[in-house]
């Protein structure tokens, strides 16, 4: 790949940029046009790739990044960069995909308007203005990553800063001013700005940090129910996000199911049976309006595959989440 070793950065153009865009698209990191132009979308995708590979995340494609993008190997390509991330981030990406109906990494840039009265929901776990869960993430981004925030937000940075120190009623009014009042679709230029922000490695790292308590509580649920695999952790993480917890009454039904599992099954068979019980019993305890959605979503995790909101999922192939002991 020596013909690709010219250094590329924002502002570069030409066929080498097109090859770069194609490889980043294949890796699931770039969803923009194949226009041979190195813009902010390509730069943020390059930064994400570099971060996943442990390279300096400067957004510049030099010889080291080229070598990582096009390794000299005759072996088949890996299942995807997400499988190389920590398990906590893979579980986060899966639940984020369920929440936003977008794959990795676009689930980190999921945006919803004021459909639910919360003003604006944004990010992999749909933090929102109304409940005050989005403001801390934005404040941390503006404080800890000033240069990136200024570059992405441009002349809208002051408006974001002013919103963050305003009363909640004003924050909600601001959020609603960014969208169509009927369809609640976020309008340009704010839509493009938020998408670009959500695609930066810096804001994705902020989201991972703020999701850490959910991961910790998911680990505690796995211990409580004696399930040990990566799928189990993904299940409990999703329960924490979508459903909050498992009540004592639901737990009693789950433990009764566990007690009825025949002896002599393989560890894998027993684990899947347990996860199906948790999926079904937690769905039964949900509001009738959402019961089937909960069931389908949780059984997709238990089985390792399924269709949620019209999107097909294969947990091992797409997220690197397997039926093996979580570490």
TL;DR of this structure?
With 327 residues, the protein is mainly alpha-helical.
Global Rg: 21 Å
Percent range of helical residues: 40-55%
Question: What count of structural domains?
Answer: 3
Number of strands: 5
Q: Outline the biggest β-sheet.
A: 3 strands, antiparallel
Give the structural class. mainly alpha
Q: Going across the major beta sheet, what is the strand order?
A: 1-2-3
User: How far apart are the termini?
Assistant: 36 Å
How is this structure best described in words?
Helices cover 54% and strands 4% of the residues. With 327 residues, the chain is mainly alpha-helical. It folds into three domains: 2-70, Muramoyl-pentapeptide Carboxypeptidase, domain 1 (Orthogonal Bundle), CATH 1.10.101.10; 106-198, no CATH class; 210-319, no CATH class. It has a three-stranded antiparallel β-sheet with strand order 1-2-3. Strands 4-5 form a two-stranded antiparallel ribbon. The longest helix is centred in the middle third of the chain and has 25 residues, at 201-225. The radius of gyration is 21 Å and the shape is globular. The two termini are 36 Å apart. The model is unreliable at 73-79 (pLDDT under 50).
